[in-house]
């Protein structure tokens, strides 16, 4: 019998920040959970965390690669780093933007 993923999550800005710089992505089709948190006090943290969730999901779900999960994860995080670097260079007000990212990819039974 195959497992069915049921994922749930929530986020709020916490007690110190007025904006929520967290991004949470739950992909039941692929069994992927991604949590990203913009670095507090830095510019565009909410943009960086949203980019993290999108880029890592895209990297893990691409059918173009024959890489295993670990390689796909590493490639996705490297791409994320490039994307954030380029976004910070393109928009001077985003200089110094950053995020943390934690991702889990569940597979098999």
Short structural summary:
The chain has 109 residues and is an alpha+beta fold.
Task: Name the descriptors.
109 residues, alpha+beta, Phosphatase 2c, domain 1, 2 helices, 3 strands
Shape: flat
Radius of gyration: 15 Å
According to CATH, the fold-level topology is: Phosphatase 2c, domain 1
Give start-end ranges of low-pLDDT stretches. Answer: none
Total number of distinct structural domains: 1
- The strand count comes to 3
Main beta sheet: 3 strands, antiparallel
State the name of the first-level CATH class. Alpha Beta
State the helicity in percent bands: 25-40%
Please indicate the percent range of residues in DSSP E strands (runs of 2 or more): 15-25%
Q: Which structural class do the helices and strands define?
A: alpha+beta
The CATH H-level superfamily is: PPM-type phosphatase domain
Strand order of the largest sheet: 1-2-3
